[in-house]
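Why do we care about 3D structure at all? Because function follows from shape, and shape follows, mostly, from sequence. That is the central idea of this module. The next example makes it concrete: a single protein chain, its amino acid sequence, and then its structure expressed as tokens.
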Amino acid sequence: MLAPMARSIPPKSYTNDADMPTQIELSPIGVVRSPHKERHGTPRQAVLPGDPELRPEEQATLELFDTVLSRDAVADLDDFEYIWVLTWLHLNHGWRNKVRPPGEEKSRGLLSTRAPHRPNPIGLSAVRLVSVEGLRLVVERIDALDGTPILDIKPYVPYADAFPDARAGWVSARPATPKS
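And the structure:
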């Protein structure tokens, strides 16, 4: 495993001096190993349980690549109850500016939904961390299919990540916890 090269700190005016990139290259740091083999029965959000008849198993494993990370990368992670998992939704191709969310009669603007078909199909899931076993993270209730590439993992920090009184637009008119 090669350690990434540290970059020098740019001058304070770097936002004026740098061009915006027209392409961004990402590489997976791992892969999701989940009981979800198809979209049917997979929870729409990580907090919602799946249909137990279709999928009784709620645990999944995040296998991190030892060619990218060492065990040092997961040090101290086992003290967190939840983590954010960013994934690349590699099976989704194409997208529309308006989509009809499940259970809705009206189409909504893509960016006001959590539809997986997006210009950049990045998935974001807050999942419960069950255990850290070397570079294998056991989690519960991930809403990603088996084989989904992992882009990054970050700790869930309640004071910074939860806004319980935040407005939720059209979603606020729906039941508090929709069915999976």
